[in-house]
């Protein structure tokens, strides 16, 4: 069971004081805790993130997802399965009022706490160790404006020896993520998701089960002449029908350089056509 203080903190997404992260901002330069840890830069250019080679590091899909939703500025945001917290940090950088970043791995949460201090985001971002299956222990219903989720992509297939739970559904399913998100969202709140194309119909079916209506969709391709690699989708709790399908996002030009649209995402700009 999580402390009562955490429950109270997130009851109404506090307006005046923001989030209070345990500990204080250190004036000393960050130190590596072990040789596999490193301090990287996020694509926004003004954020730094602690990562560990033994854990799953952020990738391009996280950058795209962080920039995809409309409703970020002044929003109460939840990230489920945050890992080292790239999306949460980027959401805070986009002006979210508060971000609750949840993962059941204590080590990545500790890394995120260090990143929060490194970037001076103690008043916006609260990392929390929490199991998605036990979401009722630390979430209040109907409190979040926006939920991010970058869940494990694959159900079966060949598994990595390391970081299996970050890549494959082991113990927690896509439905578990969507169920927790629907519980936390306010009516008309938004869920932003990234997934593989072969999970698209699963995502639609499960979203409908929990009264989430798809509102925006974008397919992401590595090159213009290749099939989609992932999709970005935004759902609305209790939303009415009506879907905006955005132009496809092509990551690379023929010469291998990043496209203009991909660069816009990397610079933290919201997708301009949506």
Task: Please outline the helices and strands.
Layout: H1 4-9, E1 37-41, E2 48-52, H2 60-67, E3 76-80, H3 86-93, E4 98-103, H4 106-118, E5 125-129, E6 144-149, H5 164-167, H6 174-184, E7 185-195, H7 200-209, E8 212-221, E9 228-237, E10 244-245, E11 249-250, H8 260-266
Parallel strand pairs: 3-4, 3-6, 4-5, 6-7, 8-10, 8-11
Antiparallel strand pairs: 1-2, 7-9, 8-9
Helix pairs in contact: 2-3, 6-7
Segments where pLDDT lies below 50 for 5+ residues? 1-12, 14-30, 159-169
Helix content: 10-25%
The SSE order reads HEEHEHEHEEHHEHEEEEH
Based on the structure given, which CATH architecture is correct?
3-Layer(aba) Sandwich
Counting structural domains, the number is 1
Backbone shape: globular
What do you see in this structure?
It is built from eight helices and eleven strands. Helix 2 (60-67) packs parallel to helix 3 (86-93) and helix 6 (174-184) packs across helix 7. Strand 4 (98-103), helix 4 and strand 5 (125-129) form a beta-alpha-beta unit. The longest helix has 13 residues, at 106-118. With 274 residues, it is of the alpha/beta class. Helix content is 24%, strand content 24%. The chain has one domain (4-12, 37-266): Vaccinia Virus protein VP39 (Rossmann fold, 3-Layer(aba) Sandwich). The chain starts with a helix and ends in an 8-residue tail after the last helix. The strands form two sheets. Strands 3, 4, 5, 6, 7, 8, 9, 10 and 11 form a nine-stranded mixed beta sheet that branches. The chain is globular, with a radius of gyration of 18 Å. The model is unreliable at 1-12, 14-30 and 159-169 (pLDDT under 50).
């Amino acid at each position: 069971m999580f402390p009562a203080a955490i429950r109270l903190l997130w009851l109404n997404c506090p307006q005046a004081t923001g989030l209070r992260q345990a500990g204080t901002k250190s004036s000393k330069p960050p130190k590596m805790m072990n040789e596999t840890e490193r301090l990287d830069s996020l694509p926004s250019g003004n954020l730094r993130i602690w990562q560990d080679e033994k854990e799953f590091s952020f990738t391009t899909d996280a950058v795209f997802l962080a920039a995809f939703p409309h409703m970020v500025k002044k929003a109460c945001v939840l990230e489920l399965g945050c890992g080292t917290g790239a999306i949460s940090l980027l959401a805070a950088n986009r002006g979210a009022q508060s971000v609750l970043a949840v993962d059941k791995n204590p080590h990545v949460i500790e890394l995120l706490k260090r990143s929060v201090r490194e970037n001076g985001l103690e008043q916006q971002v609260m990392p929390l160790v929490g199991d998605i299956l036990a979401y009722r222990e630390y979430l209040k219903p109907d409190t979040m404006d926006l939920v991010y989720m970058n869940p494990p992509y694959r159900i079966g297939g060949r598994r990595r020896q390391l970081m299996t739970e970050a890549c494959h559904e082991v113990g927690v399913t896509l439905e578990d993520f969507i169920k927790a998100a629907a519980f936390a969202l306010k009516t008309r709140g938004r869920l932003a998701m990234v997934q593989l194309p072969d999970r698209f119909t699963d995502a639609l079916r499960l979203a409908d089960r929990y009264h989430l209506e798809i509102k925006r969709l974008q397919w992401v391709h590595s090159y213009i002449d290749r099939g989609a690699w992932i999709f970005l989708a935004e759902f609305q709790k209790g939303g009415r029908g009506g879907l905006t399908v955005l132009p496809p996002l092509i990551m690379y030009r023929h010469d291998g350089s990043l496209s203009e649209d991909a660069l816009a995402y990397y610079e933290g700009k919201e997708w301009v056509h949506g």
